[in-house]
Design brief:
There is one protein chain. The chain is built from eleven helices and eight strands. By secondary structure, the chain is of the alpha/beta class. The protein has an eight-stranded mixed beta sheet with strand order 1-2-4-3-5-8-6-7, sandwiched between helices. Strand 1 and strand 2 form a beta hairpin. The longest helix is centred in the C-terminal third of the chain and has 29 residues. About 7% of the residues have low confidence.
Length: 302
């Protein structure tokens, strides 16, 4: 997740001893279900790797174990060189494309566990499920973007270099704890937003859906007129404070996410694998509801 200058300044201040102490004193993450353990293992493998190629290698190894063929896509844009990872998960080649993605890079502080090994692990978890049980009406591909932290460059390069335009791009950034799925969507009553609302209610989570959301890779798609949304999993009480900070206002209470990302405190100790696993369940449910709704809409229009 790429912060504004104001956001970065706050994060810098909060990266001083109090934040580092919080990370050191937090209990190690636990996982109560096989799905949570798998998600946590992926976050750990990515976070334990070095900040560049090592994180991509961890993702590639996981894709190998899932039997998903991947390819690297080197790029150069705005004077920067990077490498995206792209993979086809499954579905009919004639079906509309659903593209799921997250950025794999991190800043030079901390382990990048929350930002954004958590998002990358969520894409891996969904890829595993959608490969085992494909969507009925969409083919699925996944992407892991490089250099998001340098200005959304990996996703920007994909669009600029003629990557396949999806029927919808779904981004994941900071999917690490809490009771609320925060959804960036230009259409709060659109098909996936409605499906997400129903899925969250069914899974016991809250949904906050709307246009106001921190800048991350969904913007590369929206700026080109390509449909895109983004998901985070955080505490419901954090959202107002985050938006206040982006608006240049002082939050009444500093949100946890602003104390963690882009600091030395972005470690595995902050992760809640059980909450994230519940979030993955809900997102899978939302995507399947949306996919089924797509078929119903197409039939009604005939």
């Amino acid at each position: 997740m790429r912060p504004s200058l104001h956001f970065a300044l706050i994060a810098c201040v909060l990266s001083l001893p109090a934040c580092a102490r919080q990370a050191q004193e937090a209990a190690p993450p636990t996982a109560n279900s096989p799905a949570a353990k798998s998600w946590l293992a992926d976050v750990t493998a990515i976070a334990d790797a070095d900040a560049g190629p090592g994180r991509r290698t961890a993702i590639e190894k996981r894709l190998d174990t899932l039997g998903i063929q991947w390819r690297t896509s080197p790029f150069e844009i705005d004077g920067q060189k990077g490498t995206n990872i792209l993979a086809d998960v499954g579905g009919s080649t004639s079906a509309p494309l659903l593209l799921l993605g997250a950025h794999s890079d991190q800043v030079g502080k901390g382990e990048g566990a929350t930002d954004n090994a958590s998002g990358s692990a969520t894409v891996l978890a969904l890829a595993e499920r959608l490969k085992a049980k494909p969507l009925a009406n969409h083919r699925v591909a996944i992407a892991f973007w490089d250099l998001e932290e340098k200005g959304l460059l990996g996703s920007k390069a994909y669009v600029a270099e003629g990557g396949t335009k999806p029927a919808l791009y779904v981004n994941f950034d900071v999917f690490a704890w809490g009771d609320t799925v925060w959804m960036m969507t230009p259409e709060a009553e659109g098909g996936l937003a409605v499906a997400s609302r129903d899925a969250m209610a069914a899974k016991g989570l809250k949904l906050s859906a709307g246009e106001h959301y921190p800048p991350t890779d969904h913007l590369s798609f929206l700026r080109s007129g390509w449909p895109a949304v983004s998901y985070s999993l955080i505490g419901n009480e954090e959202i107002t404070g985050i938006l206040d900070a982006y608006a240049g206002k002082k939050p009444k209470a500093m949100p946890k996410v602003m104390q963690v990302i882009h600091t030395d405190g972005d470690t595995l100790a902050q992760i809640d694998a059980n909450a994230a696993s519940q979030g993955v369940n809900a997102i899978e449910d939302a995507l399947r509801r949306w996919d089924a709704g797509f078929a119903a809409t197409a039939t009604a229009s005939q």
